[in-house]
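Before the break, one more example. Copy the sequence into your notebook; we will annotate it together after we see the structure.
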Amino acid sequence: MRHAWLMVALVLAGCNLDWNGWRPEAPASPSPAPGSPPHLYGRPLELVRETRTIATASGSMAAAAQVIRASAIPGVAQVDANDCGPAAIATLLGFYGLKPEGDSDPLRAVKTAMPPQQWGTRIEEARDYLNRTGYLHAEAYRDGELSGVMDIVRDGRPVPVVVTLDGNLTRMHWLLVVGLAVTPTRERYVLCKNPSDSDPLGFSAYSESSFQACWENSPLRSQWWSSLMAGVTDTNAASYRRPYLDVGALARP
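Here is what the structure looks like once it is written out:
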């Protein structure tokens, strides 16, 4: 997500779907009682333990990984600078066996239903889009902790996050966290599906420290204009500190 320097970016980033070809007449599971959180289902059988080669500062190393199986979550590559959000969401839909209607290309279909702004997509827009499917439930959070994100991944549920790459405000970006890898020297790496990766089965590995730094979105939150929206929680740039979506299925996939 680029060009967020424009003043119009003060309001920040932010179907009817088939489930494996089955179109029920009603939501897949009963609605929870008012005020109670829904029970969300992931795909824990797709979580595997494997050895992955990680590029570290000391060179490539074999790392022990716990990660969602690559074949279970083929990535959708972004096409434009500002559509990494729709690409990440299209990847997530595919993981749950959902295919958006309206276009045979999942990225175009998501972009039609959830058009990205010039600066990208707010997490609230993605949350609302996912909740409209009737098959998934999403909640938007800030001040996330990596340990909590990994708990969600261990439940077999990829986690969409918004980061600022390279410390550059104009490079806000969506990633899907899908696993964790640990080298023999105990260095930890966060494994992500990256919409800018042209390999649909590829993972990007970020050292824990670099991921945390990007997830803080400090360049965005330090901008002078962020305080202008201080009263609007879901669009305030200062609230983009470790944002993520907790997403899961409302019925067993």
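The first helix runs from residue 84 to 95. The helical segments are 84-95, 106-113, 123-132, 146-154, 208-216, 218-221. Try to locate both features in your own notes.
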